[in-house]
Amino acid sequence: MATLERDVVIIGAGPTGLTAAHELRKAGKTVAVLEARDRVGGRTWTDVIGGATIEIGGQWISPDQTGLYSLLEEFGIETYPRHKEGTSVFVGPDGKRIEYTGEDFPIAPEKVAEMDKLIAVMDELAAQIDPDRPWEHARAEELDMISFHHWLRTLTDDEDAATNIGLFIAGGMLTKPAHTFSALQALLMAASAGSFSNLVNEDFILDRRIVGTMQGVSKTVAAHLGEDVVFLNNPVLKLDWSEEGVTAYGATVTVSAKKAIVAVPPNLYSRISYNPPLPRKKHITHQHQSMGLVIKVHAVYDTPFWRAKGLSGTGFAPTQIVSEVYDNTFYEDTRGTLVGFISDVHADAMFELSEEERKARILADLANFLGDEALTPEVFYLSDFGSEEWTRGAYATSYDLGGLFRFGPDQSVPTGAIHWASSDLAGEGYQHVDGAVRMGRRTAALIIAALDGTAHDPAYDGSVPVPDTAHA
Ligand SMILES: Cc1cc2nc3c(=O)[nH]c(=O)nc-3n(C[C@H](O)[C@H](O)[C@H](O)COP(=O)(O)OP(=O)(O)OC[C@H]3O[C@@H](n4cnc5c(N)ncnc54)[C@H](O)[C@@H]3O)c2cc1C
């Protein structure tokens, strides 16, 4: 067992923990990062499966994600655009398949108008909400009392419009049924991306990818940190703390430090035994943030066959098991890769099936979108973060009804020498790698100021405007 003394110990080598470590090192602080897994990157994870590079976790970056873009620029990491050319496919509740172009689903004009009305309401409210402090909005308490599902139905009598809009945030983002989280939580998700319109525009939110993969960003930062900084296979299960300092106990390394950053998703805070126990408010708060669940489906074919038919690979089917599909062909790969998503209760149902039944069921949905060629991929793989001990769900955590207003104001308040940071606690970039980078920088800046006795800007997250060339 190695015993180390450092200025700061960071628990978790995901994008948040590694960005914080990088900032602290730049300020001349000594750091140790203890990571439970045998790899860095957390919910960003890439592997070669059946000869294909698969982004098992986070992968896309959108134009507003200037926190992540500035980190990419710092390390000279390039991005590339997602393949978007061609027509999209919509499969309606009646199973009818329609090819279309443009942003609107090919549904009755009055339903499009009703959806546009709901989008306008969401945009207006999201513009009034500060993603760092959604609980301060004048209607925050009221909006946190009602489920997103029921709130939408107070705005429209059109069931299809309410279902479609609900799915953008429920299945598409928080990966929980719309009746399990509040309207305020949904509006935070929208505000964190600049607007609800941004979130529902797949060409915006799924704009580009990282040439060296998203996990590659964490690997690059970790390599830059150098020797004796990141310690893998070191789950921290015990943390002694006071106002003056901490001692973190990993499997092979114990670190005493002036400050700790717990950079793990909030649903895992209680894996750590705190000595003394955390204050009552933290104990309660930490029980109200839970992970969603989504299966990311990867299917690799010898060619991107859909492109030859004039299809982009993009498809939506609000009532199908696989409700969205996109062309996810990896950088300069001559083969074609599709990625699909199966969210919340649909994911539960899929895990009840045998492996063969599950595969057949999922491929049948892909074929509904893009044709029978989809039935025979060369590689078929499902991302299942729900079975990962050090994540336990996907993509991220959100509050139960009323939790955001009641507990949100306390979520990032340090406890003695312990700081809490992850993309789950971010305002801008909430639930995304961008939010992780922002939280890592913000928390490091707070600690540097405390250790050096200098002034501190609580809004600092190091983001810089993105050069136009990034979106060319
Ligand atoms: C399937 C999937 C798809 C996604 N798609 C996108 C996307 O396209 N774009 C995007 O921007 N974001 C996406 N995300 C979200 C993004 O990956 C996360 O927001 C981001 O990784 C969060 O970073 P983090 O460092 O806060 O937490 P994590 O990435 O979860 O890192 C936390 C780390 O802490 C470690 N840890 C946990 N407990 C302990 C302990 N007790 N001791 C030591 N270490 C511990 C974990 O092993 C992990 O490495 C996706 C996520 C998933 C799961």
TrEMBL record:
Cofactor(s) needed by this chain: FAD
Matches recorded under Pfam families: Amino_oxidase (PF01593)
Occurrences of domain Amine oxidase (ranges): 16-448
Presence of the UniProt keyword Oxidoreductase in the record: yes
Gene3D superfamilies named in the record: FAD/NAD(P)-binding domain
UniProt entry keywords in alphabetical sequence: Oxidoreductase
InterPro entries, sorted: Amino_oxidase (IPR002937), FAD/NAD-bd_sf (IPR036188), Flavin_amine_oxidase (IPR001613), Flavin_MAO (IPR050703)
Oxidoreductase listed as a keyword: yes
PANTHER family, sorted: AMINE OXIDASE, AMINE OXIDASE [FLAVIN-CONTAINING] B
Family: Belongs to the flavin monoamine oxidase family.
Designated name of the protein: NAD(P)/FAD-dependent oxidoreductase
UniProt source species: Arthrobacter ginkgonis
